Amino acid sequence: MEPQVLDRPDTSRYEILTGDDGTETAGFAEYFLSEDEIAFIHTETDPRFAGRGLGSLLARGALDDARARGLRVLPYCPFIRGWIRKHPEYTDLVPETRRARFGL
């Protein structure tokens, strides 16, 4: 089964699921949501899944969902911030007045 990214609002995190039956959590991105902003605060992937690009899929899925929901992104998490730097087409999600604070 292809990995999938799901929002788990009850735990305030996005999870990437993988495995034969698509139920194994390979990583997550924790967030804090307030009105029209989503602050990413921590991202982690299970070392067993290292090197498979799942962290990148997780970041893309979470940020694509934020875009679809019209949320502004505050990338406090170094992984999400670094991913946005490598994918400048996502920079517009970060409010222009706050980009310098995140080095974007």
TrEMBL record:
CDD domains attached to this UniProt entry: NAT_SF
Domain N-acetyltransferase: 1-104, 6-95
Matches recorded under InterPro entries: Acyl_CoA_acyltransferase, Gcn5-rel_NAT, GNAT_dom, GNAT_YJDJ
PROSITE patterns for the chain: GNAT, GNAT_YJDJ
Identification of the protein by name: N-acetyltransferase
Species this chain originates from: Streptomyces tanashiensis
Taxonomic lineage: Bacteria, Bacillati, Actinomycetota, Actinomycetes, Kitasatosporales
